[in-house]
Amino acid sequence: MTKETKLLKNTAIIGIGNICTKCISFFMLPLYTSILTTVQYGTVDLIATYSSLLMIILTLQFEQGVFRYLVEFREDETKQKEYISVAILTVIIITIVFSIIGSVILSVVGYKYTIFFIGTSSIGAINAVFLQIPRGLGNNAVYAFGSLLSGSTNVLLNVLFVAILHYGVNGVLIASLLSLCICLIYVCIRLKLWQWVKRSIFSMECLKKLLRYSLPLVPYTLCWWIISASDRMLISRFLGTSFNGIYAAAYKFPSLFSMVTNIFQLSWTESASENINDDNRDEFYNNVFNKTIRFYSSANMGIICLMPFLFNFLIGDAFKDTYYYIPILLCAALFHSIAALYGSLYFAFKETKKISTTTMLAAAINFIVNFALIQFVGLYAAAGSSLIAYFIITIIRHYDIQSMVKIIISRKYIIIECFMYLIVLFSYYLMNWVIEIVVLAIIIPYCCIQNKDFFSSIFKMSQKVFMRKN
Asked: What is the pLDDT of residue 94?
């Protein structure tokens, strides 16, 4: 099996679980926007945002560390057990301490979502570590099904608690917590993790290695959180929770794009780490980079073109203003995904300090631009600051990574792509159906031509799979 074929195979396996779940979840947006008020939706989004922040701290990013070292020691079961034991036991102890202290503090201040907030943060942290273990062991099927189980359960429970029982915010939070628990139990039983975790083999050497690799990723991940979450905090502070609900609804569309790219990102990180010492490493990396960037850009452009035709079917009347922010956020998501491609190379080279440094700069730029402009241009400041931050980090990483591996992207392609984006954005904001249809008719063949090599690789892989079955 070639490197590219293996990369595509892993992407397909992971994608089955993630795409099905995320697409179902995405199409729940009409349910949320028709039943929940903008304030309720904004509240749910803020709780999810702060829970994701706590999970970064609670895990110490051990999920990234345990994955990287399990990939390195796939032939050494003793080492695997040591790293799994250290990661799981450490995170469980941290979450227990946090749950006790956090519950007391939030109860004293009278926070009404204490149980859900503490529960989601703690179970989510443990679940994050559990899900990376099958990936590190090369068992992507367990990871994919666990993700599918969690997402589909979340959707079904949301229908029950929000649409049928009308529990509102509580219904969304209950569904989220229960789906995390179900996923955690599945992975634990499927991998028989109790056989892998032994207190007697808790290794201080492994703990130190995990800390050296993972701790620099805490500020790195926090910075990504700041880039994403500072928008919500500043919107709530200066514009109100209702505007945060509108922004959260607009963010669902770039989230759909990011969902697809994140699936590939998981496989790419694994492949980049596995092939780090190969003789033709640079050729492989460049081939993957160029095909992937073309596909990302085409998919992003396609979503923007289709948005005018789908918008009214997906968004409730109270959220109509989201239309104007979607293209900006989609472009931001594109640069975020490209920056993440470079980020995988930092992971492969174990340069976790460098990845943190570049991300901190982007986080600072995002916050400063947003803070300076939000009172003057409203939600455009939040969307625009994300775009600027992700663009800058992409440029910085491209030039910084050259000292480790030469990544070459055609300037001619970049110029043509920018021109096509200008046409797409012009037609989007003009809001003329005739022009939008004409532009869509131009973009579809253009994107197909740009991705002919990518589609050829997919076709060849499908042929091989079909021939094996016959």
From this structure: 95
